Queue: 3 jobs
Job 1
Amino acid sequence: MAKKKQKTFKNKAKSKTISALEQRKWGLLLGILILTFIAFLPSLQNGFTNWDDGVYVLENPVIQSFSFDNLKTMFSGKVVDNYFPFTMLSLAFNYAFSGTNAFGYHLLNLLLHLLNTFLVFWLAYRLSGGKTLVGAITAVLFGIHPMHVESVAWIAERKDVLYAAFFLGGLLSYLNYLSRKQIKPLIVCGLLFLFSLWSKPAAVVFPLVLLLIDYFKKRPFSMTLIVEKIPFFVLSVIFGLVTISIQADTAIGDIAAYSLGQKICFASYGMVMYLCKLLIPFKLSALYPYPIHSMAEGLPVIYAVMPLIALAVLGAVAYSVRYHRVVLFGFLFFLVNIILVLQFVAVGNAVMADRYTYLSYIGLFFVLAYFVQAVYDNTAPQLKNWKTPVLATVLGAILLFTILTFQRSKVWENSETLWTDVVDKYPENPLAYLKRGEHFYQQKNYPKALNDYTKSVESHDTYAPAYASRGLANFKLKKYQAAIKDYNKSIELNGSNAVAYNGRGHVYYQLKDYQKALPDYDKAISLDPNYYMAYNNRAIIFHLDKQYDKALENYNRALQINPRYGSALKNRGVLLKEMNR
């Protein structure tokens, strides 16, 4: 009887201990989420920027209603040169409640990031076999790291926080499958993978991450292990081919522009710099331009030596397998999730981007957390004196990263703050001046816009868009001959730029030289059949020449493309009145 009471007492004590640990775990997780929210708090006061927010939201008719045609376009066609129907659905949800008020978009981005931080905690916790400290450190670093500001504070990067939520949910479902040996969690895993692909095509690497989990969990190789992955790889191939076909002429750059050796240098530079910025997030920017000014003389030395540093890193990772598989797992998790944007194939107009680390850094955070746990537990005798300095370093890094993220979130307040930050860090980059000039132009501050466009031209004298934009600023300032000169130069550099032809045509129209204006409008329309402003401008020429039928046809075409185009509505009304209609 006494033994039975003693056993009951022990069970109650054990139960209380478990309960206390559970409360501590949930309390720690809540604290991480609160800290993450505070770090990104300034983003809720930010507005839209001219860095894709316009085409994703402000000028995107597909998200402005949940009509059948819009839903069909989302799921069966490309939108904004991509295929991500769930991302478009989420933006449509925002538009239904917020319209063009940026707060709702930023709030949902932040809520999704908090959800992802929650999921990262449980992923790391379960991968580590229930180590709370590993889960906590992995999650807090994910939540507050300054490199993640771009993905959260940029409205157009909704796709990052959304695809990551389904991706992480899928990985947790896979861990359920491994522990329960039931088919249902694997089906859920597959569905979440599909949803992740519908949010951003970068999710195509998901099956490779499943294989990495198999490796880390020491799962024996078997035919079952391979067969269960086949549907995942099939989905990856399908979405990969769809993405390549859609982005061939847009996001994916000219792969022949650089030699194989240069692309290896760019990829090595990206990989090493991502590792450096993990520990020391310095000189963060919305744009990391290629070293275009030094290409004629050869790459800068820093690019040339990067392949050697990258090889040294890979060698160190391979050597670590002798002691523990966590380093190889974490590094490959990082590499697999970033390999597609390491510029072996030129993607976009930057050598690297902060947003590419959103998921990939989880693997590296996990390795760091595992190391801290080992020091904390004194599992390695050689690390027994490191406990205090390591924990102090971690706490110091958390505090520093929180402050840096708080400050970095303010950079995305508007287009001026964003591009001024890029200009400060890369003063020779023409795109930064061009985009800031566009902001000033939208604010009708034409002298400032002209100044930035001129700096863009001076920093890269063969940059056709800068000449076209400067031509527009000169036009607004009634410097018509200067505007024509700029448009001529832009067309000389890029004869397929419809904007330049339309702009030059408008200058000729203002000078009442209609014989020169009309061919420019024709050319703009031939280059871009959906250029509704060019149709309106051409209609005005026909209208003045009393070719009413042709004028009406062009006004109608402009309004067919953009039914809310006020200038064409007004002009067509005047025309119909003159036609007694």
Job 2
Amino acid sequence: MFDILITGGKVLDGAGNPWRHGDVAIKGDRIAAIGNLAGQGAAAPLVIDAAGLAVTPGFIDMHSHSDMAFLVNPIVEPKIRQGITTEVVGQDGIAAAPMAAEHTARWRRHLSGLNGDPDLPWDWRSMGDYLDALERAGVGHNVASYAPHGNIRLVVMGPDDRPPTGDEMVRLVALTRESLQQGAFALSTGLIYPPCCYADAAELAALAAAVAAEGSFFVSHQRNEGFRVLESMTEMLDAGRAGGCPIHFSHFKAAGKANWHKLPAMFEMLEQARGQGLDVTYDQYPYTAGSTMLSSLLPPAAHAGGTDRLLVRLADPAQREAMRHAMQDPQAGWESMTRNATWDQILVSSVASETNAAVVGKTVAAIAVMRGADPYETVFDLILEEKNAVGMVSFLMSEESVRDVMRHPYQMVCTDGLLGGTPHPRVYGSFPRVLGRYVREEKVLDLAGAVRKMTSFPAQRLGLAKRGLLREGYFADVTVFNPDTVIDRATYAEPRQFPVGIEHVIVNGVPVVSAGRTTGRVAGKVLRKGQDI
């Protein structure tokens, strides 16, 4: 007797093989058998009729920002309703752990525009402590974490804009290795975010060597995704070569219309790197707009010393003027996103206070008109008034470029969505959007290939030996969807809409979505690199 029997579905194993009719049996938290089971008399107390439906491994979200969300509510419904059974937090080099007590208050303020600032004790210090906190809280689906470079730098050096001393470099390397040994799957950096953006080539190479020593990989939100995207790719690829570790690019793109033509050169760089023996991959969200903190529009020097110093600078008219000039400088070595998008392509997605609630969902251009100010002053004022807790959505890519990035063999799928305010629709719709729009409607990918990019390929990148495939003995993370109807419903105007067509989701053998509705069951595991997970 099995616990769950999924019968008559189109079984896609996750390896890229074409579907085949069959049944999937689950016993405990494992897949027990696959084949013509019902016809041979197999039985279970729960039988799911999957006739006409696709039965696949659970989807793996390679880039998410649910770091705090799980600690508030273990069931992150926007993710499991997409068919996601595992997601990866600790992204962009700026996340929850490790953390030093003396920096906790300022770091919470710094991240509030990214992850919010829920009423939590923040009493963890190491990566292991944070993962333990997740386990105590319970997680509705599986969670893995990267070790964030910015946190590691903050613990060792504080928020300063400078290179590490020799002793500090030793400590950066040691804390990186310790975080990986405690269960982080990779090191992440966000080279547009302080304090990660203060790192130079020598620091990146040393960290890459630490990553290699732990048998892991280096994940990067690269320093520039627009006018200097090729130079920024070179920076990370060189770090991988110097340190001897694989490189994974976050939310791969060419940002800004003036840079869309660079995609072929970007793909050629990836091919050359792999031809030279460097293992390179990337993830992508299937939308033309990105999303991050509004303060990422400001030059790196504005952030030196942390959020408190940033707010002091924003209160000084002379320093505001210096920021404006830096944002307009075409020779800037940092990524000025205001050169990649116009003010009517940047909208405010979240704020912390009720005072500015009316601006959420409006573009900076529209808010400037409302306030009778120019766009630069509007941005400066909002960040100051909200103490840096402002999220944004920015329209940077073309549909053609989204398709080109998606087709590439090194691509995986992610959401990369901020959960607060009026979120980017990718929080609710990324995986169904790929399956509905780009597989069924536009045929950018075939179904088996798309499922592989959502399951076994990210599992391979992470080193999850028993997830990402439908195989006997593997953990029973399973998604069942209707390939004829699956589609996202979330829009930029109304993003909090669940997709259709995701019928059943099973995490570690437990149904968390049944007939398209959440069951309320908490079934996830906190995954740690190197464990039987």
Job 3
Amino acid sequence: MRKTSRFEAYLDDYNLISIYLSTSFYNGESKTFFIRDAHGKLSPLSISQQTTSHDYMKYILLINDESITIGDYYEILEEHGLRTRLQYGLIVRTNRFNDSFYSDRDDFGSQIINGNTRFVLWAPTANNVQLQLFQKDDTKIVPLVKEEKGCWVYELEGNHHGLQYLYLVHVNGSINETVDPYAYGTTANSARSVVIDFDQYDVKMNDEYLPPFKKTEAVITELSVRDFSMDKSTNIENKGKYLGLIEKGRVGTLNNKVGFDYLLEMGYTHVQLMPVYDFATIDELNPKTFYNWGYDPAQYNSLEGSYSFDPSDPHSRIQEFLTVVSTYHRHGLRVIMDVVYNHMYDMAMSSFEKIVPYYYFRLSDQGAISNGSFCGNDVDSSNAMVRKFIVDSVIHFTKHYHIDGFRFDLMGILDTDTMNTIVSEIKKIRPDSLIYGEGWNMPTMLPESSRATMFNMHKMPNVGFFNDFYRDHVKGPTSVDLKWAQGYCLGDTNYIDAMKASLLANTRNHFSVKLFDEPDQSINYVECHDNMTLWDKIKEACKEDSKEERIRKQKLVNGVLAVSQGILFYHFGQEAARSKMGVENSYRSNDEINKVDYARTVQYQEIVNYTKDMIKLRKEYPIFRFESSAEIQKHIKFTHLDHNALLYEFQDVEMYVPHENVKVFINPTKHHLQYPLDSQYKLIANEAGLLNFEYTNKVYLNPLSMVIVGKVKEVESSYIHEFNKC
């Protein structure tokens, strides 16, 4: 509550009013209070409690709950004749309010229904809602009609695709001008909402080109629309734009493939786009003035305009993004959206707070704002209509843009019921969608048992989680104060048990920490947009290494990722030793730091080719992506080697691959190692990448490398013997 004027009154429950009376006014003392309705009827209120603060006196007043109609206008009067508007306060957070005003209607926002344009806004505490329509040179204001469950409705005859509008919401004594939080379209810089009819966009979405897949077959790469094409050394035309994601035939100054063609060659199955909904801190009409990743939501259901060829045209961004998704699908690539439903850029200025104050953001019983996101305004997904908004929002992107999955930023701010509802509803539309997120346990005002964290993974069996255990033990800790610390693959072989746990997607109790029940819950990664890149981390943690050794470590980590159980995730550019010049948190850094530097794909082509080979190997060998923990338990064992090198072994796997036994030797040390094999083995891969027609009965393990061999079948073994005799 504000407590900024002499006299304030809030309805905090159906039978409870909180009064704040300034001590500068009669010392804040009043013996009697009255409530007056819009018809002038005056009723006395009884004082239940009275407390004193430095600058105000707080009173708790009791009221008959049947005498209040939510949304109606009331005033509170005190004994000296001072009066104030009764505001709807924490009552909106009660279970009774949620039950009374939950609406399951599916036409919120502005939609074309039966040829007419319908506007629907949920605003149960408003006493009036008006619609401001901007038709060519004419502006008019029309009233909405209040229907059941706090829904306000207006229907305009005809299809008004492209019509711009705003709401004027009369609530708690203010008239709040606001965009429509459900709107699918917006003008530049979130100025006005726009009616959108998706039937007007003629884009074939090419779903039929998407190959069937199982979760652990996913090879995800994360990229930013802006970073992907900003490199000045390329001839990509639409730099920093949606269309820059799909330009073909583009090259760098070294005549190297860049952008879309380069992306396709890597073999990824999914592209995870950093935020593309409308975010706040970029001036869409002057997009190069500022830089931001986009974790500052302004409007969830509308697209970001700075990535559009024409931000002033509300249709341009929609047409372009549909074209991007369509093109990716045509080439067999699925598209995942990074979504940030856990907080907004500015709570006070958000349409949510302007329409239903105190409802959409998580507050304590005393009105304090939850700050588990460290952005000062945690979204309260446990409130029924907040949960519905989030679910409706992901349904919108799934239906209208054919999005193939969602990555949830700070997912631990949200609740488990919301995440399970999302999975259930999205699977009805696109059954093979991937739903995953950051399952960190954030200090939000929500019981830990209800938070969508990885420690509650058993409550969300169909949700994946970024595996920070994997990240911190394979690469090394990401925090700035521990940038010197090495993980197993960077040289600290004391983490050998943690390495084993990581290779198994933390699905077994035998080694270190069990985090997940099944491998498809683990998103294995060492680098993403957050924190240092892997290359920058290696430079900090391994300062005594030569450049050749750093390259070998980058390859080793990329290769180990590809043979780890779980879901594979690479940051775009990681395969080319991407660097951000040591910047740990580049969310506001310039394009020079954040861009994908395509010259590095030539400079570090050795790493690029190796990573590409390892992705191909993962696709060809199902043993590196088992679907169940039971298969992991049955077929995998480990052996400690000299100097804490590791043998990661697959037994009895001829039903999956053309080998009875596959051995993966991992050597994060600077020692040359060699081991005899029990029979003839095919040399599948080493630090040079995939190998063909090479066989051996002894493994030579070079420093900072991984070697993979497969046991030759008896028939093949005799053929090799005869071949060698020749």
